Amino acid sequence: MKLLRILSCATNRVIRRRYATNILSGKTVRIGCASGFWGDTAVAAPQLIYGGNVDFLVFDYLSEITMSLLTAAKTKVPELGFAPDFVQVAIAPFIKDIKSKGIRVISNAGGVNPLSCAAALKKVAHANDIQLKIAVVTGDELMPKKEELAKAGVVDMTSGKPFPQTIHSMNAYLGAGPIARALDLGADIVITGRCVDSAIVLGPLLHTFKWPRDDYDLLAAGSLAGHIVECGAQATGGIFTDWDKIEGWDNIGFPIVECGSNGSFVVSKPAKTGGLVSKPVVSEQLVYEIGDPTSYMLPDVTCDFSNVNITELPGHDGGAVFVSGARGTAPSDSYKVSATYASGYRATGVACVGGPRAAEKARKTAKAIIKRTSKMIKALGMEDYTAVNIQVLGSEETYGTHATPGPGPREAVLWLAVTHKQKKALEVFAREIAPAGTGMAPGMTGLAGGRPKASPVLKLFSYLYPKKDTKIDIHMDGDHVESYECPDTSYSVSPSKYTDSWTHIPNLAKGSHSYRLEELAYTRSGDKGNMCNIGVIARHPKLLPYLHNALTTDAIEKYFAHVFDDQTSGVPNVQRYELPGLDAFNFVLNNALGGGGIASLRSDPQGKAFGQMLLDFEIHDMPSIEELTN
C-alpha cells in the first residue's frame, strides 16, 4: 500500500499542474527573504527591494549557535546582543526606498536584545528623516525563571538529563501570532527575539488574510512557505546536489513566495539573477532540518508535509514552482525552549601538512601533541582533557570505513580539537602546536589563524515550557502597547509515522547495473542539536522502489557507523520517514554530531556534508535507468 500511495502522487501532480497557473487568482501577497543566517550576503536586500516587487521583506538571523554568540556579546556589553548587520547593512542603505515603496519588514535580528535593536534602527530612521513605526516582540527570554525551573526538576526533552547549573542562555521559540498582531497595530518593521524561523513569513500571511487561528491546514501552508524561503538562497539553487548545473552564484537570486488566501503559493526569485528555482531545488529545501514530516511541530500548528506537491511553472525567468498540499493539526500547549549551558572550554588547532604520506604525518603529529600536553597539564596539577578530536582532512577520514583506499594525499589539513574544564590547560595546548613544525614530522606549512584561542563550550539543553506561563509583550516605538495571549488549542499527541520494520518491496525487476545514489537521487542534510537529518529525493518516481529497498535504516546506520557517539539515549540511531508527495525519504540520525553546534569538536558539527557523503552509497543489481524511466 505504501508503494501504491507513493506512485499515485505522480498522477496527482499531472492533474494539479493544470490548475497551477490559476490557483493564486484573487488577493495575493509577495514576501521576499533576504537573509538565511547571521552573516548572509549583502546583495540580497537590494535585489528584493528593487527587483522583487515584494510587500514584505523578511530576514532570518538566528540559530542555536547565533543565540549563544549574541548572549556572550550582551554579557560583555549590555547594549549588544542583536545582529548589527540588520541595522547597518540590510536596512540603513535602503531605508528611504523601503519607506517609499511601502515594504514592511519582519526580522528576528533582535536576538537576545530586540529592544536595543529597535533603538539602533530608530536612530537610523531619525538620521534619514524617516518616520517608521517599529514594533518589538518580547517574551522569549526565560533566564529570569532559571531558579524556578531548576527547582521544578525540568529535564532535557531528548536525553532526560537534569537541568544544568551553568545555564548560559534560555529562549522559547515563539510563533507567528504576536508578529501578525504587531502588523495589525500598524508596524512598518517588526523585530523579534527567538521565534521559529517560519514565523517571520506566517506572521505577514496571518495579518494579510486574517486566517482563523484554528484553520490548521492554512497555518501549515503558511508555515511551509516560511520553511522553504527562510534559508535564503538554499531555496534558489544554493547548495543544490547538482551544483555544477547552477549558474550565477556571484549574484544568486533570493527567494520570493507569492501566497494566495487558500494557502497555495508560488516560489520564485527576482528576474536576471543567478540560481534556479525548480522542483528538485525546492524539494531539497523542504526536507531540510525536519524530523517526522507528518508531525513537524511548530508553536502555531503541527504540520504534515508528507504529501506536499511541487510543480514547475513555465514562463518564469530563473524558474518558479507551485506548492500545495500541506496539512495541519493543533499545536502543542507548550513552547520548545532552547537553552545553552557552559561546560568547560575548547580550542582547535588547524595546520597544513604537505609531502608524501601527509595524512600519516599529520595523525602522528597530532597524537604526539596530545601526549606531550597531557603530561604538561597533569604536571601542573590539572586533570586530563575531557575530549579530544583528531581529524585529518583530505584523507577522507570523515567517511569512516568508506574512505577511498590508497597511499593517501600528499597534502592534508590537521584538525586537532580538545576540551578541558580549565582555560589554563588549553593555553598550554595552544602553545605546543607551533613547536611541532620544527620538532616533529616535516611538511607542517602553516597554522591557520595563528595560535588557537580557548573559548567556552556551550551545550544545548532543550525542554518544553507551558504557553500559559509565557508572557509575550508587544512594544511600539519603545512603549509597551499590549500583551499577547496564545489561543487555546485542543492538542493531542498523534502517533509518529516512524517504523523500523519497512516492508521489502518484492518482485522488482533486476538487472546488471550498479549506481551511486547521486545518479538516482538528490540529497540535503542539516542539524537540530545533536541530530542530523538527510532527505533523499528520487530523481524519477520509478526509481523510488529501488531506493526503498536499498536505503533501509540498517543500511544507513552501517554507512554512518563512525559518527554515532551516544548509545544510551534510548532512541534508535536511525529513523526513516516517507514523503510520498515528493517521492522522498527523510532519515533522522540521532546522536550523530558529536554534541552538535559549538559543543562539537568535529569539522562538520552541523552535518552539512552528510547528504553529500551519502551520494556515494552504491545500489546494485538494477535495470538501467533508461529502462526504468522511459
UniProtKB/TrEMBL annotation:
Domain AtuA-like ferredoxin-fold: start-end pairs: 516-619
Organism phylogeny: Eukaryota, Metazoa, Spiralia, Lophotrochozoa, Annelida
PANTHER family, per database record: PTHR47708, SI:CH73-132F6.5 (PTHR47708:SF2)
Source organism (scientific name): Owenia fusiformis
InterPro entries recorded: AtuA-like_ferredoxin_dom, AtuA_N
Protein name: Uncharacterized protein
Pfam families in the cross-refs: AtuA, AtuA_ferredoxin
Domain Acyclic terpene utilisation N-terminal residue range list: 29-476
